[in-house]
Structure formats: C-alpha cells, structure tokens
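seq:
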Amino acid sequence: MSRTFAVIKREFTESVRTKMFIIMTLFGPLLMVGFVALEVAMMRSGGGEKALTIVDATPAAVGSRVAQMLQAASPGEKASDRTTFKVDVVELTGKDAAAVRNELQGRIDRKEIDGYLWLPAGVLASEPAMYVGRSATNMGLVEQLRGSVQGAVQSVRLADQGIDPRRLGEALRPVSLETRKAASGAAQGSGTALFFLGYTLGMVVYLVIIIFGMAVMRGVLEEKKDRIVEVVVSSIRARQLMLGKVLGIGGASLVQVAVWAGFAALTLHYGPQVMARLGAPGMTMPQVPGSVAGIFLLYFAGGFFLYASLYAALGAMAASDQDMQQLQLPGTMILLLSYMVMFRAMTDPEGQLAVISSWVPFSSPMVMPIRSALTAVSPLEMAGSFATLILGGLLIIWVGGKIYRVGILATGKKPSMAELVRWVRAA
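struct:
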C-alpha cells in the first residue's frame, strides 16, 4: 500500500506543479467569465447601421410602412440591440424593373448601399418579397426585415377589412411566461437558469475527464516507450502502479474542480451584481443547495476513476503515438454518447432515458448530478446509482489491470483482440 501511495503522491505532485494546471485552476473560471462578458458586449453592440433601399411596386404604399417599422424599435428593445437602417423608398411605377435592379446592384458593388428590399405588386396576395444584399446571411437582420414586411402587409390587409391595426395589435400583445422548478430539495430558479446550470455541470465533467484521462493515457505510453516502466514494475505490482497513476492524477483533477466549484458558489452569490455592471440587469441566478455540489464532486470522482482506468488500459495497449490516437476513440465515443444523453436529462430529468442512464456507470457521472440539481432524486436511487458507478469502476480497474500488467511490457505492435483475451485470462 505504501508503494501505491508513493505513486499517487508522485503523479499528484507532477500534475499540480505544471504551469498549465496552475493557470487553469486559478484563471480558468475567470476565462469563462471573460467569455460571458464578451458575449454580452457583442450582444450589446448590435448590428450597426445599414443603408437600405426599398423598391415598392405595390399600389398600397407598403414600402413606406416597412420603412417606418424598420426604424421603430419594438417595445422594451434597446436601440443598441438591433440593426438600425438608413432607408430610401423608391416607387417602381413607370420604371423598368430590370434597369432598377441593375442600378441597385451597381450601388451595392460600389458600397453606396448595403442592399435592397424588393416588394412586388402581389406581396399583399402572398407573393414573396426579396432582399438582396451583402448581409443576406445575417439572421438577425433578415428577421428584422421579415418582421417589418409582415407587419406592414398585415396592417394593410386589416385596414382593407375595416379593422384598426393598432387596436388589434393591442389585443394580441404577447403575454410573458416565466418557468420555475417545483421540485423541493433541488436547485430553484428560472427554467433558463437551471438549464445553463445543468449544462455547466455536464460540460465540466466532460472536459476534465477528457483532458486528464488523456494525460493518464499519454503518461502510460511515454513510460512504456522510454522503458522506465520496466524498472518501476520490478519494485511494484503493475496493478498498484496503474491504480496509483489513476488516483494521483484524479486527485489533481478533483482539486481543480473543487476550486472551480468554490468560484461557482461565489458567482451564484455575486453574479447578478456583476452582470448588471456588464449591462445585463435583472439577471437571476439559481439557488443551488450545498448537497448538489457534494453530489457533483462525488460523481465526478467516481466517473474519473472509471474513465481514467479505461484510458490507462488503452495506453498500455498502444505501441506508438499513432496507436494511441486510434485507441483513444472508443473511450472518447463512450464519453461523447454520455454527453449527448446529458442533454435529454436536462430537458426531462424524470424521463425514462434519464433514469436508466443514471444507473449506467459510463453516463451516471454526467446525468445524476444534473438530475439532482433539476429534480428531487430519492436517497435510495442515489445510493444505488453511485454503487453501480463504483462497481463499474472496480470492474474496469480489474480488467484494465490485467491488460496493463502485460501491455506495459509489450512493444512492437498493437495487440489483437485475441491477444487481449489471452492477457486477461493469463494475468
């Protein structure tokens, strides 16, 4: 046991002393906040001003109505959040359509205007309008144009039927709907806030397991290539060496995630004030019980133990860097599949898929923390799920240890499936 502890200490120390570990542990959360701040700043920057020509071929002067709607902000909408337009309306009556199109295309090419909106004579009868411009792939701008054309056309149709568009618009004004979780014992807050909470929990598990799991795999291969392992296994059993590497690097990852969890707690407490300073006032943070953080760390540790053991066994099978790249695919695909299941658990934490995946060792590290945050999970189900996770990890470490014992000394080529079976039986 003392030899295993020595390996754990060495792997842990080497992991936490690297510059990248220190940078990511201390400044990783700040980088995440920076990305959020950048996103808010980009959202506030709007789309700038666009020079637009509206070609109106309708008999009802729909173009003028469209211009008014483009230049009027929606209720509660900031001018900085939308594209503003410098609009010029051109009547098509008595003009050659082809000549007008060619002239406008030339103005676009000379960058005198950003585009033009063509309103055909039959637009009131559902003939499609057309926008031609350099920003045709700007979905926000296109939606503004679509909404303005639709509003203008509908107002003309209503007026033709003797209906006051303003009174109808007031009657059909949208009603806001807020969503709140009703489960006691889980996190409380808006549906959107809880969705991002679940997404963050799953993303952290996915990224950390990928990064540190690959570190385990790469470390095993490097020791194997440098023949260091041949000296090490002369004084310690291969399974003890493998367990020490997994627990040592896993401990380093757990320290990093624990620091991030502490930063997350501060963010949940002070987040609204910070976001208000960044220009997003009224933002609400979910209220997360301390039990959710404990469950997250517990399942993260169990999940890392399972996946790191798998990556260690795969690293022992590899004979070269090229082999490692090929062998990492099975573990990564399993983890990616679990990541995909996580999204279903976020939208339906009490659904059949979420419940079943909570009992599968490969997916429970992502799914169960999310379920515990979004809904009330019984202690019996939680204990059973965690027990299957630990049993799965022990099974992986048992089988992986057998492969590791032979694989770390095997060189030359990647073993076949038949050879792997012989390794497991003989070891």
